[in-house]
Every structure is written in C-alpha cells, then in structure tokens.
Amino acid sequence: MFSRLHSKRRVQLFIGFAIGFGFGFLLQKGWVTRYDIIMAQLLLTDFTVLKVMLTALLTGMIGIHVMRHFKLVELHPKEGSLGGTIAGGLIFGVGFGILGYCPGTVSGAAAQGSMDALAGGLPGILIGSWIFSELYPKLEGTLLKKGTLAKPRIPDLVGARDWVVVSTIAVLILVFFGVIEAMKL
Amino acid sequence: MKLHVVRLIVVVLVFVGFAMADYATAPNAAGAVETYDENGQGHFLTARRWSPYVAGFGIGVLAWLSFLISNKTIGVSGAYAKSAGMLEGMVRPKSREKAYYKRFTPKIDWEWMLVAGLIVGAFVSATTSGDFRVEWIPPTWQAAAGGNAFARWLTALIGGMILAIGARMAGGCTSGHGISGTLQLVLISWIATLCFFVAGIVTAFIIYRVIL
User: Fold this and answer.
1) Binary contact (A35, B162; C-beta < 8 A)
2) Contact A91 B200 (CB under 8 A)
3) Mutate to test the interface with A, among B103, B125, B210 (most CBs of A within 10 A)
4) Fewer C-beta within 10 Å: chain B N or C terminus?
5) Between A145 and A35, residue with greater pLDDT
C-alpha cells in the first residue's frame, strides 16, 4: 500500500530522521537517557528502563501483528546465529553495565549535555565498531555461523499461531508490570 | 478456550489499571528522583518527565510507523558501524575494500538518519523542558567513585568499545533486538535481549557492590 513511498529514497531519509526525532524525544522524556536511571535498572532498584522497553514491545507487537494480518506490513526478522547472538549479547551486556548507556540512549544523553556519553561513550562505540570490522574476517565463517535456526520466529519454532504467542507475551508483560508496581519499583 | 483467554486478559488489565492509577497519583513511590510533571501549568510537551508507560507507548507507535511507511525496523547500533566506516574511509581510502564494509556499505541511510534525528529530538526535549545541563560525572557514579571526571570518562570509553563489539557480534542492540526484534517474535532477539540484561546486571553489581 505504501510501496511507492518505500522506494523514494530522499523522502525515506527524511522519514527516518522524523521517526528518529520522535524516538530521541521519547527516550529523553522517559528519562532513559540518564546514566542514573539505567544503572538503577541494572542494580534492580528502579524499573523505568524495562517499563519503557516492554511497553514499546507490547504496543509494537500487537500493532504490527494486526497490520500484518491485514497485509499492511511485512516482517523483517533478523538473521543471526545462536553463537554470535549469545556471545555478542553477553559482551554487549558487560559493556552496557560499564558504560551505563546503550547505543540509542548514549546519543540522547550526549544531546542533553552528559559529557561522559559525548566524550567517552560515543568515541568508544566508534572505536569498538572499527575493532569489530577488523575482526570480522576471522569471525564471519566461525562464531557468527554457529547454530543458525531454520526458522527465526517463535510461533514457527513452537508450531503455535501468532495470536497465541502474542497474547501469552502480552499477559506476561502485564503481570510483570503489576508485580513491579505492587513492589513500588 | 478463547473466552478463557479474554477473561484472563480483562482481569489482568483491571489489576494493572488499578496499579497504574495508584502509581500516577503517587509519582514518588516508584523511587523516581522527581515527579512526572511539576511544571504546574506548563504544557505536557515541555514537562521534564513522562510516565515510562507513555514514553514506551509512543515508541511502540513509532515502530508501527517505521514498518508501515518505511518498511524498516528501528535500530541504532548499525549507524555507528557505518559512521566508523565512513571515517575510516576518509582517513584510509583502501579500507573501503575490507570484507565487513563490502557486506555492510558505510553510507548515510535510513538508520543513520534515524540516529541523527534521535540526537536532535533528545536535544529539543531536554532544552524545551529546562533539562539540558553540561554534566561531566553522573550523580550515581560520583556518589560511589568520587569526583574524578577522568576515571568516569575512561570507564565510559572502555564500556563503549566493549558494547559496540558485542552489538556487532549479536547483530543489534537494545533497540534493534530489544524492541524491534522481540516485537516480531524473533527467537534470537529474545535471547540477545536476555543476554544484554543478565550480563549488564551482573556487571553493574560487580562495579557497584564489589569494586566501588
């Protein structure tokens, strides 16, 4: 339905910027561009970060699956291996705990004046990305190929309908919210 | 069977509704530093803080829009790899032949513009709410590690390097896997997000409960 719009490169770059603007605005308003809020999440004393993420996940998941049902959108499941995902995910988590920002929030933090994000986190991420590009030829055929899945999506892997998985996850997220609100976290 | 599911969802929604109403009327109860909107008569767009549920809902709507009008998913970390590649290409043109850059061409694309917009959006939100301030050391760090800005800077630099290597190995970050991948029910995105938080929590506890 929007396929003509999808192919207009310049318009798409502008839309990307506009969606990014909204994303940065919301991250800042949600207070997740703050080191203190992210560390409080990782130290399990404040659940702002997971509230933002899981609400976005819940909202996005329901909307995308409804739109997909009406053939308005197509999915883009990430391709990757279990080896690369688990090793990379754990390495990312260590960096996340040390830096205290993630790639999106580090930019937002820099934009609100947090100099540790601007002068430390951002150059660190650029250097780290460069190091990976140097390591890539060694990893490409080995770790990054370990344990690839035949089907990327959970409903296909467990043989369940989409709506069953969507509503199960939705209920679990709502129960989680209920528990952390009851615990005043 | 379907009726049971509907009933369960209704019960949970009512429960959550009460919890959220309670939360909204007692904003400090969540351990938050400040209440959501203490600007008094100020417009909500210039409020210093929104409820995390409102911010999260808005990000979910942005995810709908990126699928619908751009046929894209929101993801951030790849744009840094492209920026690093563009910088390296300027300094060392031969680097454009590297295998990684052949596979992921460093150029200004939709995701790169997304991050550019993110920076401007956060800046506008911070400045219009009086939240912009130059801060060398975050208060949490200062309280535990003292006022040495160099120590915090070096920690952030090293953390950023490790984080970026991990993001590229995993093929995404807290946005690309943590929101866009999980909402499409992609298994590796759920695994990646779990790994991000498990390793992040362990690292944070080691730093704040053991080292500092």
Assistant:
1) no
2) no
3) B125
4) N
5) A35
Residues B100 and B163 in one domain: no
CA distance B7 to chain A (A): 11
- Its pTM stands at 0.89
Instruction: Write out the two tokens for B101.
Output: 């850059």
C-alpha span between A110 and B116 (Å, rounded): 12
Task: Please judge whether A78 and B172 are an interchain contact, meaning their C-beta atoms are less than 8 angstroms apart.
Answer: yes
Do B6 and B67 sit in the same domain of this protein?
yes
Contact list, B90 vs chain A (CB under 8 Å): none
Whether A147 has its CB under 8 Å from any CB of chain B: the answer is: no
Bridge partner list, B186: A153
Residues B178 and B212 both lie in one domain: yes
Handedness of CA B35, B40, B45, B46 (dihedral sign): negative
What is the tens place of the pLDDT at every residue in A156-167? 999 999 999 999
Q: A60, B64: Cβ pair inside 8 Å?
A: yes
Residues of chain B with C-beta less than 8 angstroms from the C-beta of A157? 187
Do residue B165 and residue A135 have CB atoms under 8 angstroms apart?
Answer: yes
Does one domain contain both B165 and B189?
yes
CA dihedral B137, B140, B146, B151 (to 10 degrees): -50
Contact (CB<8Å) B203/A31: no
Give the distance from residue A19's alpha carbon to the nearest chain B alpha carbon, in angstroms.
6
Residues B51 and B124 in one domain: no
DSSP state of A79: P
Backbone angle region of A44, left / alpha / beta, with phi > 0 → left and psi within -120 to 50 → alpha: left
Chain B residues in contact with A52 by the CB 8 A cut-off are: 52, 55-56, 59
The pLDDT of residue B3: 52
Q: Encoding tokens for residue A35? A: 């080191």
- pLDDT exceeds cutoff 70 at A108: yes
Task: Quote the number of domains for chain B.
Answer: 3
Is the pLDDT at B179 greater than 90, yes or no?
A: yes
pLDDT digits (tens, 9 = 90+) for B133-160: 999 999 999 999 999 999 999 999 999 9
- Are B118 and B54 in the same domain? no
Last residue of a domain, one of B49, B71, B93: B71
Task: Point out the domain boundary residue: B55, B71, B87.
Answer: B71
Residues B146 and B124 in one domain: no
Cα pseudo-dihedral B149, A111, A43, B206, rounded to 10? -40
ipTM here: 0.97
Q: For residues B123 and B155, state if they share a domain.
A: no
Domain that holds residue B164: 134-212
